[in-house]
Amino acid sequence: MIIRKLQDYLDANNVRYVILSHSLAFTAQEVAASAHVPGQEIAKTVVFWMDGAMALAVLPGSRMIDFTLLKKGAVAKDVEIAAESEFSDAFPQCELGAMPPFGHLFGMKTFVDASLADDKEIAFNAGTHRELVRMRYADYERLTDPTIVRFSFMTKSAA
Q1: Which pLDDT score, from 0 to 100, does residue 30 have?
Q2: Which residues of the chain have pLDDT under 70?
Q3: What is 3-154's CATH topology?
Q4: Which of 3, 45, 48, 116 is most buried per CB count within 10 Å?
């Protein structure tokens, strides 16, 4: 799986991180509960189409995307969520829905919700539905150089 490549990448860039193993979980809320990580610190990765190219939206697991705000922040003419069947081949060695939030490693632009940038640490899927990487947000931002915009809202269940 991609976790070894991810670890090598983080090590090569002198990033301190922890790998957390947890029981099988698919949604951000399930992952947070299983790994005992606050939902706000779970960075979920959503693949979307932006003017015909795939890109990543990274936001707290406790929030949802407002595509109108994402479109405005991305300065795009067209923005829409990608279907799993459209992006499954774009993330080799990753389980579907467990892609790490490093768009540049997959040839995609990365957009991070401003609310996630407020966190000292983030945790995210490491290519599987059983492993997370937890690291400082500042290191993540340094490595990915994402576009930071406000494009999410709190879900009613997380409010």
Answers
A1: 73
A2: 1, 156-159
A3: YbaK protein (3.90.960)
A4: 116
| Cβ(2)–Cβ(102) below 8 Å | no
The pLDDT assigned to 156 comes to 67
Tokens representing 127 are 């290519």
Domain residue limits, the chain: 3-154
Distance CA 117, CA 95 (A): 26
pLDDT in tens, 78-98: 999 999 999 989 998 899 989
- Cα–Cα distance for residue pair 40/107, rounded to 1 Å: 27
